[in-house]
Design goal:
CATH architecture: Roll
Structural class: alpha+beta
Shape: globular
Strand content: 25-35%
CATH topology: Nuclear Transport Factor 2, Chain: A
Order of helices and strands: HHHHEEEEE
Radius of gyration: 14 Å
Oligomer: single chain
Number of domains: 1
Number of strands: 5
């Protein structure tokens, strides 16, 4: 699913919405339960849940995101690969994306916390099988 990386990567180039104060940054990375919930939302096939799970989605990008993510049957985050950066409040985790048809793909996903939820922010280069 290189398309996922390209689609989500385009959203990153539009701009970053960081918290107003450094004290607003999370102090720990996502838990296994939080990653499970995000994976369930992204692979739900339900437009509202998918769109609510992506951070900083530019206006008008919904159609492309839904086209990509409604093809995803299952998202699996490898909880052993979570890396959290206290300076930025972002986390990176390896993921396996299983489409409805075809073999799974592997990506490294950048996650950010908005309010009480961790959200998908971007796909990063150099994925590896997890």
């Amino acid at each position: 699913m290189v398309v996922v990386g390209l689609v989500v990567g385009v959203f990153v180039s539009v701009g970053v919405s960081l918290p107003a104060k450094k004290s607003d940054l999370p102090t720990v990375g996502p838990t296994a339960n939080e990653l499970e919930q995000l994976a369930a939302d992204l692979s739900s096939g339900k437009p509202d849940r998918i769109l609510a799970s992506i951070a900083d989605l530019p206006p008008g990008a919904e159609k492309d995101v839904l086209k990509t993510f409604t093809n995803i049957k299952f998202v699996d985050f490898n909880t052993q690969t979570v890396r959290f950066d206290k300076a930025t409040g972002a986390a990176v985790v390896d993921a396996r994306l299983t489409p409805r048809k075809g073999p799974p793909t592997y990506e490294r996903e950048a996650l950010v916390k908005r309010g009480t939820r961790w959200l998908l922010y971007s796909s990063l280069p150099n994925p590896k099988a997890t």
